[in-house]
Amino acid sequence: MKIKLTILYFLVCTVIIAQHKETFTGSQDNVEYKAIFDGKDVYVTLRTEFKETMQSMLHRGYTIYFDVKGKKKKNVSIQYPLKAGRPEKGSRPERGERRENDEKREEKGSDIAKMIENAPKKANYTYFDSSEDFNLDMNNLGIVMNYSYENSEVGPILEYHLKIPASKISVDTRDMSKLSIGIVSTKQEQKKNGQQSGFSMGGKQRGGGQGRPPGGGGGQGGAGRGSGGIPPQRDTTTTEVEKLDFWFKLYPKKK
Predict the structure, then answer these.
(1) Distance between CA 198 and CA 15 in Å, rounded?
(2) What is the pLDDT of residues 179-211, one digit of tens each?
């Protein structure tokens, strides 16, 4: 009996060690990735050693797409985190306070462990035309998500882990050999010069300019006020900040 227990213990340890040493199948956008299908669930792991990428993943969030036909269709997805809701009435800070809070948030952004601790618990699962928000700690979808962070001797390492039932990806789970998985950051834009866009003064006139017929003298007077009293707006061309945008296969082709 002791011999059988010893053999069983050895086999379990061997499996755990093999899984721990399993290499990632590829790397894009500073992120290593791998996916496993055990016949019931699909496991996705993302790993990065780059602090900027960690901050982008935790702060901006992203959507994970699944396409059983091996293409890049975005019909089945998990989005995390959801967009933060508006603050309650009376709780909105003043402009100066908001700026100070934003600066403090940027400073705290380097504390990855703190960001994970304060990460939202809400995510969204979408399957074609149906969509459902769910809680990471408790849900009836069978979806499990979490982060692990290690500040090792080599440097900081962030890993994202996802387990999703194959039945939540496709009705027919017998063949997942063509499954492709997409990782796409939540869209976010920043403005050059840090200036917010407003309505165009050329589109609507203020004061006496309203109600006058087109082609009248009021139009000329409005143009005079606009050129003399209102400074021209700066270029507000938008650029996207660092993002993730790549797809990989569950079973990559062997080279």
Answers:
(1) 60
(2) 999 999 987 544 444 444 443 334 444 444 444
**Is the pTM above the cut of 0.85?**
no
pLDDT bin (cut points 50, 70, 90) of residue 151 is confident
41 has which bridge partners?
165
Residue 88 CB coordination number (10 Å): 7
Element (H, E) at 151: strand 144-151
- Eight-state DSSP code of residue 109: T
Please enumerate in sequence order all residues whose Cβ is within 8 A of that of 25, keeping only pairs 6 or more positions apart, or say none: 33, 34, 35, 248, 252
Q: How far apart are CA 4 and CA 10, in angstroms?
A: 10
> Is the separation of the CB atoms in 68 and 179 below 8 Å?
yes
Tell me the pLDDT band of 97, cut-offs 50, 70 and 90. Answer: low
Task: Name the token pair of 74.
Answer: 């975005």
Residue that is written with structure tokens 């040493």 in the block: 21
Give the CA angle between residues 79, 85, 89 to the nearest 5°: 175
E-only strand ranges, 26-143: 26-28, 31-37, 41-48, 62-67, 76-80, 122-127, 130-135
Answer whether the bond into residue 81 is a cis peptide, omega within 30°: yes
